[in-house]
Write a structure and sequence with these properties.
The protein is an alpha/beta fold. It has 17 helices and 13 strands.
């Protein structure tokens, strides 16, 4: 086992998302959880090619909160004839700017990149996200494709892929500070919940049931609030980009599928911090859940960065056959952290094959031997992810 206490060697990590290419097509919202590297990528890729309006600068934020129409003057003071690209970093800090952005897109043909770590405040402000004048892209923690030789599996499963955490000599301290900042700036300051202690207990229980099918009633009972409130809490996690509901694939006819979603936190390290994980033992169920969550992270980033529209779902029949992930009606993926695939690992895949929808089937594991068995591609995770990012899993 790799030493999960030793941070990988830090270096410049080029991100997969190409911001200049995005803006060559249309204005974009760039959403992503805080500290996924949005501002760094903006600086590296657009720093000398765009006007950057940073709403984390208190003077700029204060001016635009009072007078959103000052945006045009700020842009004109910095722009030159060689660019029409404008970045507004942390757009949720001043939602009223979107009216000005709308006007400047129409009147002056600017291309805007509007970054943010929460869509909730924009929705609450009644804005329409520019009515289709800007597309939406997303930023994720590091992927294996980005980290390359810097990727260390055990370290990633335990501490996740947030850039400032992954390369830190004190990753757990960074994660705890991260969650404190999230609670203070995203939850308390925005007044998103009234009962902070209940929400904290919800976060812990949500993390402990990470990757599992949701049971609102059980969590509500353990938290001391209503099931309706628990649903609202999950909505807050989605809107603040801390996690995502994954819906079931429900087209199966031979075996009736469950109708309840799963929830995945966006990062393994964040989930462990909320669940108060002390150690991640290689032979534990928790390790297997983290391995599954990590593959979810890779699949989510791939589909977003490649601008694929197929939905990422899971399948579970009411007689408990299950496949961890489906992509559209094309690909089914079962994830096992085991070092040796056995016959039982095929049960869910084989049950889903009987439905006659999917064209490709994969079992992703730590087994070092890659083999095709009865039409199922059994691949070591390294092989699978190499093929995924080479566009050989979901064919273009």
């Amino acid at each position: 086992m790799e030493n999960s206490q030793v941070a990988p060697q830090k270096g410049i990590v080029p991100r997969t998302i190409n911001l200049q290419e995005l803006l060559s097509k249309k204005s974009h919202f760039l959403f992503g959880p805080r500290s996924t590297g949005k501002s760094t990528a903006i600086g590296q890729q657009l720093g000398k090619k765009a006007v950057i309006v940073n709403l984390l600068r208190s003077a700029v934020q204060s001016t635009l909160l009072k007078n959103p129409e000052e945006l045009e003057g700020i842009i004109d003071a910095a722009i030159d004839s060689s660019t029409s690209m404008v970045v507004i970093d942390e757009i949720q800090k001043v939602p009223a700017l979107l009216d000005e952005v709308h006007r400047l897109i129409e009147e002056r043909n600017f291309r805007f990149l509007l970054s943010g770590s929460s869509a909730r405040k924009l929705k609450a402000s009644g804005v329409n996200l520019l009515g289709g004048r800007a597309w939406i892209s997303n930023m994720f923690p590091f992927t294996t494709e980005e980290l390359k030789e810097n990727f260390k599996l055990e370290h990633f499963l335990r501490y996740g892929g947030l850039p400032h955490v992954y390369f830190s000599s004190f990753p757990q301290d960074e994660l705890e500070a991260y969650m404190t900042t999230y609670l203070n700036e995203e939850i308390k300051m925005e007044g998103l919940v009234r009962k902070i202690p209940a929400f904290l207990e919800f976060l812990r229980l949500a993390a402990m049931t990470n990757t599992q099918i949701l049971n609102f009633s059980t969590i509500a009972s353990d938290t001391g609030v209503s099931a309706t409130t628990i649903k609202e809490y999950y909505g807050i996690l989605e809107d603040t980009l801390i996690g995502r509901l994954v819906q079931p694939w429900a087209k199966s006819t031979k075996r009736k599928a469950v109708a309840t979603a799963k929830f995945y936190f966006f990062d393994t390290g964040v989930a462990h911090t909320l669940a108060e994980t002390k150690t991640l033992d290689r032979n534990s169920d928790l390790y297997g859940q983290s391995f599954e969550q990590w593959i979810f992270m890779e699949l989510s980033a791939y589909l977003s960065y490649r601008n694929r529209k197929e939905k990422l779902r899971f399948w579970r029949s009411q007689d408990r056959h299950e496949v961890d992930f489906t992509i559209g009606d094309e690909v089914a993926i079962e994830v096992k952290s085991t070092k040796k695939i056995n016959r039982d690992d095929f049960l869910g895949i084989n049950a889903l094959r009987e439905e006659g929808f999917f064209k490709a089937f994969f079992i992703v594991s730590s087994d070092p031997v890659d083999i095709v068995r009865d039409g199922v591609h059994c691949l070591n995770w390294k092989t699978f992810l190499q093929r995924l990012w080479a566009d050989q899993v979901l064919r273009i």
